[in-house]
Amino acid sequence: MFLGLEHTAIASPSPLKLAQWYVDHLGFRINFEYDGNYFVRAANGTVLEIIPSEGPRGDQKMRDPGIRHLAIAVADFDAAYAALRERSVNFLGEPYVNQGNRLVFFTDCDGNLVHLIQREKPLP
Prior knowledge:
The protein is α+β, with helices and mostly antiparallel strands and 124 residues long.
């Protein structure tokens, strides 16, 4: 009956700018748009919907309640990290290894938390 997540939405003061950031920095593509809402699709088929926000953004800390980050799977961590460094992405620290997985956290142009991950083994 339930198939899984179809997409995740992010509210942005500038949806087109944020959608284009995902295109320019992570190789997503804008595959649908209506009334200022943009759907961007990753190479693996996952989708983000970027919608117009209302009001000011509150503080965002790593462990605040709610959705905390987007994890971007990569096949070649070093190449992906280097490409983002070349594009002057705002990294929140240095890459590290956790349980055999390589990670690094950064923010998109709206300040949303994102991280690269190359898993040693796929999740069960």
